[in-house]
Design a protein that fits this description.
By secondary structure, the protein is of the alpha+beta class. 15% of the residues lie in helices and 39% in strands.
Amino acid sequence: MLQFDLSPLIGSKPGKRLDFSLDEGPRQLGDVGVSFLRGRVRFTRIQEGVLVEGSLETEVTVECIRCLTPFPYDMKLEMEETVGFAGRPRPDINYRLTDEGWFDVLPLIREQVWVAMPMKPLCRPDCRGLCPQCGANLNLETCTCQETGDPRLAVLAEFYEQSK
């Protein structure tokens, strides 16, 4: 949990702000872990509740889609979300303050991390991947497997050899 006391904003007029700096170490955000969280978060009282704005930097460990090697991936997160008051349900607001005015920002950061996560992460642009026969990481070693080609195209390869 990374909670902020926003109770001073509950009874205030729209426009009042609270600014916080973050410099946190490793955190587990549910199903994703981050190495650090650094940046700023601003909470502004608005008519509908509290506007959360922030710029954060973090690093997550992702797995390369070609060679399956875990590697660190740097992220810059930009947050902008409306947080509702406790006891005032609205279908368009996903996050709420507690009755005492506290807000845990980690679920919001987790959501932003997943949105910023690459769909097909590569450890490097020229990743050679794994050998489809023996499973060797071709970035680290060479294998002695002979390329047999796609078995589904064997009939075409045979036809090609006959037509020579």
